[in-house]
Structures are given as structure tokens and as C-alpha cells.
Amino acid sequence: MTEQSFTFDGRPVAFRSGQSLGAALTAAGVRSWRTTRADGRPRGLFCGIGVCFDCLLVVDGRPNERACLQPAAAGMQVESQEGTGHGHLEV
Amino acid sequence: MGTSRSDRVHDVVVVGAGPAGLAAAGRAAALGADVALVDGAAVPGGQYWRQPADDALAGSVASLHHGLARYRRLVERVRGIEAAGGWFPRHQVWTVTREEGTFVVLAITGTGAEEREVGIRGRRLVLAPGAYDRQVPFPGWDLPGVMTAGGVQALLKGHAVTAGRRVVVAGTGPFLLPVAAGLAESGATVAGVHEAASPLAWGRHIGAVVRNVAKLGEGAGYVRTLARHRVPVRTRSVVVAAHGEQVLERLTVARLAADGSVLPGSRTTVAADVLAVGWGFTPQLELPMALGCATRVDVDGSLVCTVDDQQRSSVEGVFVAGEACGIGGADLAVVEGEIAGAAAAGTPLTDRRLLRRRLALRRFAAAMHAAHPVPTGWIDRLTEDTVVCRCEEVTVGRLRSALPLGADDARSAKLLARPGMGWCQGRVCGYAVSCVMSAWTGVPPSPVSIAARSVASPLRLGTVAATEDPSSAAES
Amino acid sequence: MAEPGSDVVVVGAGIIGAACAFFGARAGLSITVLDRGSVGGGTTSRCEGNILVSDKGPGPELDLALASRSLWLDLAAEHGAERYELEEKGGLVVATSEAGLSSLRSFAAGQGTGGVIAEPVASERLRDHEPNLAAGLPGGAFYPQDMQVQPVLAAASLLAAARDLGARVVTGEEVTGALRGADGRITAVRTARTTYPTAAVVNAAGTWGAVVGERLGGTVPVLPRRGFILVTEPLPRVVRHKVYSADYVDNVASGDAGLETSAVVEGTRGGTVLIGASRERVGFDETLSVEVLRRLAAQAVRLFPFLAQVRLMRSYRGFRPYCPDHLPVIGSDRRVPGLLHACGHEGAGIGLAPATGRLVADLLTGAPPQLDPAAFDPMRFVLEDA
Ligand SMILES: Cc1cc2nc3c(=O)[nH]c(=O)nc-3n(C[C@H](O)[C@H](O)[C@H](O)COP(=O)(O)OP(=O)(O)OC[C@H]3O[C@@H](n4cnc5c(N)ncnc54)[C@H](O)[C@@H]3O)c2cc1C
Ligand SMILES: Cc1cc2nc3c(=O)[nH]c(=O)nc-3n(C[C@H](O)[C@H](O)[C@H](O)COP(=O)(O)OP(=O)(O)OC[C@H]3O[C@@H](n4cnc5c(N)ncnc54)[C@H](O)[C@@H]3O)c2cc1C
Ligand code: FES
């Protein structure tokens, strides 16, 4: 079995091939990686199959990717997400 | 970003490679049809036979599966489709349109800058999109660590990950048992299974149960597993609140009276890092509804597609199979898939056995729904600050503020207080909002208004805009 | 069996019916509003909620729009802007070609005579107004008078205010006809369930105004003009004003039956960005047109390139109620004493609602109208036919 890793907020997180980012984070004991846009509440995996959009995070600079669907890949830079994930576009 | 559109017109395009879609595609191909099979996942199997996208990982979860031999036979039957370039994994369908007498299934594949749209054409369609967990809100359910029962199962079957170390499984329905058993077998501590229904509930439907002994056998196996791991299974028991600062730490559970209310003095607290909760399933009807397929309300209150005994929808050329025709489990999904696949290939099945089997399984499903209703008391246990719509963070209080403005159902509540307007488009909150509004106003719920979604899966505007012929996007 | 009587029955609880109910109740009339659906659930729930003067040239519609605009501001001052989510955000019209810019300039100059303020914006200044706009666009015009409300909330709040003044609102009640006295005057409105005695009826059934008019004895030529809106994922404030390309104005005024699209982009309180606008005459065809979505998306991305990476979350469509001459029908139907029409506001019903409501109240009470209603006279079609 191959052990590989991606980074989550700068820390390495190991995963097995075939796992999603959400699965690997869960296996590493990470429960939440997003805060909501109105109340700043923490969120993580909920439906696990791409339906609920609670588990959004930033993958290689792209916000709003679903952790439960996005396959983990070696070297990926994954970050937790605040609000809409598009803060830099605000005018 | 871009679009690719081939001129190939398949005889049959099957959307969904779960039990129903796999069976449909394989059967249609076996009857000589040129078939395309499309699924958002990387590997066929759907929810029931969810497989990791890697062989080594798949090996480590094989023991969790039931009927793997059958799964392999179904996959074997679609090999020819793959060889002929008709298998489209990781293709998420966002809508279906018509063009010159054919259906065009529009799917998204690739992420980020790689995202592109693929158009797959077919003369006939089999839609087998399955379902997702039905949820009802309760105080604290938005804490990380509270998950759907299906989601916990998907993590385990699809990724070989146990969602938590100490897990409580709750809600209603026979599906709670495999979830709890799988967790226990995989090393998690299952602190308890809380089934809201009464243990006697099935007694009234003994006929339907007897005709489906196999299903019962599967259930008995889970019960033995749970006993071996000393997992307490409580009936007429519900989780009434989740607690924790940033993540789930504790749950309050309570016993239910026959009327769905909590028995006084029955509340206790359980430590848990994960709650797996589910109240049955909701069919995904976006694609059939986009095509105008007729629907009806099933015994469990879900909107489902109306089909005839050949799985024909009300729309010429469109067949629907599996959970989208009514929640009934994987066995029924396979049977419906076989029937739909044959009919779509132009050779309707004459095998009465299969048709009888579908009837027996439908009866079993109806008995299951009758035995496992969502107990009504949940609405009374909502507090003003309980979140109802997770995406838009709409609380009970905010929803209530729409009443004096004239909101009387889920749709008008959505327009005035935003539940259902978020990323998930009301998939998670729709059922609950319609129940709450109906309880408050007395106006019966309208399941159609919460099931229709114009875009079945979000996609980048750049992808929508990109067309093969750039001149067609020119401004008028 | 009949319901309690009232001076006026308003058919339709959309933005127009709501405004008629409010101004009628304020004028001292007892009002009953009937809708077969819910409050604001018709075309009012299918639009963008703009209160625009920028897209109108001098003429009766602009006069109505300007009067309406100041009434919207009065309502916001009286009830609180929050009740309507009213925002004086202004509109930025952007030309996408040099030819488009010169026709925009001459259109804007003409508007000035009608009371519209238009400030020319040079190419290099466009991004001062909208930092996310594409570079290199030839120029545009800023219209500080353009505003936006949340249309369903606005309709609901107007109805709530009308209720505070004694009006009654009944939803889930489909109007099927009218009872008339020996002199032909309307005496009651019939619904599927019961009857509502009344001295006057206002047909504010929007896109269904023709059907309701016919049921009440006086038809009006209101037809549907379909439009799609694209809704993005939630975003921070990325677009400050209502931004649209200059060819929108031509489309609005066009009588063409074919598909017309032009980019209209704006943010909402909820965080989503709305992208319109298409116009086509296809009856009440409800099916999603992917072709329309593609064109709208492409045009929006051309104005705001960042949108290419933003997700489309949903789309919706509505049917604008239009009349052959693109003016609403507001006034008494002289074929049926007691019947008034207030429908056919096409793509501007939100903007035109308060002035329409006040005009209807004036006509009902016999007060001198504050605006010349001649251009909106329902009889203009009847007379042409004769
Ligand atoms: C999360 C979850 C886990 C479950 N686990 C179990 C279990 O362990 N045991 C059990 O007995 N039952 C389980 N179920 C119940 C399950 O619904 C049925 O047992 C069975 O899988 C239904 O078969 P189906 O073919 O109708 O649908 P599904 O198995 O749901 O298959 C539908 C397929 O369609 C695909 N699809 C849907 N929409 C699109 C689209 N727009 N574009 C492309 N592809 C699409 C999906 O990716 C999926 O592969 C689970 C349900 C859920 C929601
Ligand atoms: C895509 C799109 C974008 C738009 N954007 C804007 C914009 O930005 N700004 C703007 O000003 N306008 C806009 N419009 C136009 C605007 O939506 C309409 O002009 C306005 O909503 C019309 O309001 P109404 O009250 O006349 O009609 P509706 O809101 O449709 O109300 C009519 C009501 O009558 C009821 N009814 C019908 N028949 C019966 C019956 N027999 N009995 C009882 N009740 C009945 C219906 O249920 C309905 O609620 C847009 C329209 C579309 C389609
Ligand atoms: S939970 Fe309400 S829109 Fe997603």
C-alpha cells in the first residue's frame, strides 16, 4: 500500500490512494475545515456523497471544492475555507 | 474549460451506475443495444456497492459488502460497454436536453481549469440517479461530527475510513443496522443504535416480510454482529440534541412515547465524537423532472417518479429505475434496472418471475416505510436558534419571521427567508422546511416545489459558456 | 354562501396587486386581495427586483417610472428600507463596442430631457465604478437613480402594510368569474370556493391578466415573454451596481419574437450574483433552454471575467406580462362597469408598482390622478380593433 501525503493548512496529511480529501482528513482526526459565511460556524463532512456542500475547502487555490468528492493527490495544497472562499474578489 | 460533443448517438444512455443503472446498462447491452453508462463516481456500484477508486483499498473493505459476487457479475456484463467507449466515469450530469429527436446528457468532468462539459447523445434514456439521506434538524445538528448515516457508510465502504472512534447511530429504518455493524467490525466503538420505531412495528406487515426472507437474513446477520460487539440497540429512542463547542462531544438521547413525544425523565447523555443519523432517503429527481416526467408522492412522503410496469416514465423514451421510483433498496433497484434496460433496448422482458419479484419487493418496501415513519415530535423539539437550512444558516426563528409576511409553504418561505437557496438547493433542508411550514400553517406540503432543481450539479460559468461553435455565443 | 363584502377585490398578490392594495387601503377603501397561489409567488418571484430608469427613453413609461421611483423612496422612508431590502445602488451601462458607445451616448442625452440623470463614464474610469469589470471596454454611463428591492419581500411587506390598514389577503383562492347586476355592474367576484361581494375589481393578475380579464368579462391583450436568470454560488460583494451591456436597451424595446440576450449582472443581499436577461416569445414553455444559459453565461463572463471560475448554482425563468405596445394596461374597463385592469408591466413591474397602485387608488376614489393615465388606457386596444 502506498503512503503519500498532501498538505492541509501547511501540515502534511497522509492518505491511501483512492481516498478523498475528506476521508484522509477524517482519518487524520480533522473534523472541520470550513467556517460559514454568516455566523462563522465550523463545518466538515455531513452527507459524505456530494449532496450537502458542507465540506467545502480550498484545493490548490480553488475554493468550494467538495472534500468528500475530491480525490486526494500527492503534493496537493489544501486549505481550510472561510465563508464564500472568494474574499479576494470583494469590492 | 471546453465542451466536447460527439456525433455518436447511442441507442440507450443510462445515468447512474448504482445497482439499478448497472443492471439496466448490462441488460440493454446484452440485448444488443449500443449503450452509454454515465456516473459521477470513478467506479460503478452506486451507494450500495460503493467501491474505493483503488484496488488495494477496495480489497480492504470487501468484507463489508453483501452480494459482491452479484456486483462482479453486473460489472462483468458492462465490460463490453467500456470496451466500446461507452463508460463515462467521473461524469456528473448537470442537465439533459433534447436535440433533433435525441436526448443529450450534459455532463461535467475534470476539476478546476480542467473542467469541461461532455454531451452524450441517446435515443432512449434510463435514469437511475438513486437517493440521498433524508434529514430532520435538531438542536446542535450542525456541529461537525454529526453526519448522515449514509455518509458514514460511504466513508467506510468507499474510503476505508471509520468516521469516528466513538459513534452513535440513530434515526430510523433497517439501514441503521449495516451502518452500525460495519463500524463495529472496523474497530469503532458503537456507543449505541437508537431506532425511533417500535420493535413491534414490523409485526403488522408480517406477510411482506415473509416473502422477503433473504432481506431478513441480511438483517439478522447485522444483529448478530452488533450483539457480538455488545452494541446496545434501543428502539423508540432518539437523539434529541447534540452538544460541543467546535465539534460534537455529547448527545442527549431520549425514549419516545407512542405519539412521538419524549417520555418525561428519559433523557440521558452519551459521549460521542460522531453521530450517524438518517431518517430514510430522498430520491434525486432533478433529471427526470427536467424532462417533465410525472411524479407522485410515495408512502414515505417522498416524491418519486411515476413509472409503468416496464419502468417507462410519462415521457416517451425515458425510463426510470431504482430509488428514483420509490425507496426500496438495492435488490429492488437491480430488478427495476433489468426491466428498464430491456425495455429501453426495445425488447421488453416477458419473464413474469422478475415482474413478480418487483411486486414482492415493492410490498416489502411499503411495509418498511410503514414501520419506520419519521416520528412527528421532532418539530416540537426545535428551538428558536436551531438551524433549519444549513447552507443559508436559517434558524427556526428566522423561518418563523416569514409567517407574518404571508409565507405559507416551503416555496414562499424560501422566497422570504432563504431556506433552500443555498449551495445544496434545498436537498438537505427541503423536507424539513416543508414539514415545519405545514405544521405551522396547516397548508399541506407540496413535495414538487422542493424537488425540482434546474441545475442538477453546479458547474463553472466558464464551462456553461464554452460551446463548440464560439460564434453561437456571440451577442445578438 | 358568500364572504364579507369589500369596496374592492384585487385579483393577484404580486407586486402590482400588493401596491394596489396598499394605496387603495391608504385611500380609505376596504380591500380584499385574492391569489390562487401564495404572496408574491407569480412572476414577482421570477425577476431581479430592479427599479430602473436607465433603460427607458422619454415617454409615458418613463414618467410612470420616475413617479414610482420617488414613491419607492417614500415607502422606504416610511416603513424602513429593510422591509423592502431597498438599495440605491445605481446602474452602470457598459458599451461593448465603439458603435454601441455612440448610440448609448445619444440615448442618454435624450433621456436627460425626460428627467433621467446619466453620467458618461470614460473607458479608463469604468473600473473605478466596478473594479472587477473586464479591461478595455470602450466606455459607459452611470445612472445614479437606478435602485433594487427584493421583489417578493417587497410585495409581502406592501401587503402586510395594507393589512395593517384593514385589507384582507386570501391566498390559495382562484378567481373564476364575476357576478354582475342588472346594469352590468360587477357585484361580486366568484372563486372556485365561494363569492366575494364587491363594488369593484382590479385585475392585477400579471401574465395571466388576459385569462382573468376574460373571466371577469373584459379581456386585455397580455402575453408571456420568457426570461431566464442564472444564479451563482454565494459570493462577497463583487459587483456594486446593476451592470448591463448597452444592447439591453434595444432588446427591451424590441418587438422581435426570436431569442434576444444581453448581459445584466448584479449582486444580491443573499450573496448570489444574478445574471440575465433573455427575452423570447415561446408561450408558457417552461423547459430549460441550455442555449439561453450558454449565451447569458458567455456574455456575463465577457463583462466580468472572474465569473468564468464561479459556479452556476441554479437558474429560473419567468414570463413577463407584455402588451403589444409594451405599455401596461392601467385603468377602467368601460365594457364592464366596476372592472379595472393593472397588468402587463412586462419587465418593469417592480419598478412601476407604486405609481400603478396609486393611480388605481385615484381612479377608484375619483381623486384627480397625479399622472396622466391616457397612455395606459385598457380601451386603447379595443378601440383599435373596432
Ligand atoms: C450515502 C448512502 C449510502 C448507502 N449505503 C447503503 C448500504 O450500505 N446498504 C444498503 O442496503 N443501502 C444503502 N443505501 C441505500 C441505497 O439507496 C440503495 O441500497 C441502492 O444503492 C439504490 O440503488 P440505486 O441504483 O437506485 O441508486 P444508487 O446506488 O444511489 O446509484 C445512483 C448512482 O447514480 C449516480 N448519479 C446520481 N445522479 C447523477 C448525476 N446527476 N450524474 C452522474 N451520476 C449520477 C450516483 O453517483 C450513483 O452512483 C445508501 C444510500 C446512501 C444515500
Ligand atoms: C426574468 C425576469 C426578470 C425581470 N426583472 C425585472 C426587474 O429587474 N425589475 C422589474 O421591475 N421587473 C422585472 N421583471 C418583470 C416583473 O417580474 C413583472 O413585471 C412583475 O412581477 C409583474 O407583477 P404582477 O404583480 O403584475 O404579476 P405577478 O407577480 O405574476 O402576480 C400575479 C398574480 O396573480 C395570480 N393569479 C393569476 N391568475 C389568478 C386567478 N385566476 N385567481 C387568483 N389569482 C390569480 C398569480 O398567482 C400571481 O401571484 C422581470 C421579469 C422576468 C421574467
Ligand atoms: S440546507 Fe438549505 S439550501 Fe442547503
UniProtKB/TrEMBL annotation, chain A:
Iron-sulfur found in the keyword field: no
Residue ranges the record marks as coiled coil: none
Residue ranges crossing the lipid bilayer per the database entry: none
InterPro entries the UniProt entry points to: 2Fe-2S-bd_N, 2Fe-2S_ferredoxin-like_sf
Key words, A-Z: Oxidoreductase
Gene Ontology terms, MF aspect: iron-sulfur cluster binding; oxidoreductase activity
Recorded superkingdom: Bacteria
Designated name of the protein: 2Fe-2S iron-sulfur cluster binding domain-containing protein
Source organism (scientific name): Blastococcus mobilis
Automatic annotation (TrEMBL), chain B:
GO molecular function list: oxidoreductase activity
Residues in FAD/NAD(P)-binding domain copies: 10-333
Matching InterPro entries: BFD-like_2Fe2S-bd_dom_sf, FAD/NAD-bd_sf, FAD/NAD-binding_dom, Metab_Enz_Cyan_OpOx_G3PDH, Opine_Oxase_asu/HCN_bsu
A Pfam family that the UniProt record links to this protein: Pyr_redox_2
Transmembrane intervals: none
Keywords from the named record: Oxidoreductase
Protein known as: Thioredoxin reductase
Organism for this UniProt entry: Blastococcus mobilis
TrEMBL record, chain C:
Keyword NAD belongs to the record: no
Signal sequence range: none
Name by which UniProt lists this protein: Glycine/D-amino acid oxidase
Keyword field contains Glycosyltransferase: no
Taxonomic superkingdom: Bacteria
UniProt xrefs under InterPro entries: FAD-dep_OxRdtase, FAD/NAD-bd_sf
FAD dependent oxidoreductase domain residues: 7-363
The entry's keywords: Oxidoreductase
GO cellular component, one term: cytoplasm
GO MF term (any one): oxidoreductase activity
